[in-house]
Amino acid sequence: MLQGLAASGSCNAFLPGGNYPLLLAHTGEGHSVDFTVPQDWDMKGMALCFVYLSAPETVATKCLISVVLVNYTKCSIQIYKRDTVISFNDADWQGIISHLEAGDKVEIFLSFRNELVIKNTAVYLIKKPVMKVYSRKRNLKDQESSRKRQG
Fold it and tell me: Given a cut of 60, is residue 2 above it in pLDDT?
């Protein structure tokens, strides 16, 4: 399901809405989005998205100044400048995520130069999949029990 976040006379912008088993979406008006880390959520990662208005020649990533992550529960602030955010790799994101715990109330602010008007901001919390591990021994016992019940 797609959820419309912004519309103008000439175009519509959509970001994924609704919540999927491994993706939890939070949206905010303007340049920030707030959320509470769910209790049963083993976070694998997060994705930040935004809807903006600008002149056609404006490149949004060049207008990004910083990303600020405020954890109200822990009274902490993390500030990341444009060059840092753009060069983030998986290890960098894991460092950010490792500071978030279930129940934390968090707000993310995006700061841009004046060429962009930010309409909406979204964060997608990505959950680690739960892997069920079945042992061969257990499967054999289950099959044996099933045969006994059938026979």
Answer: no
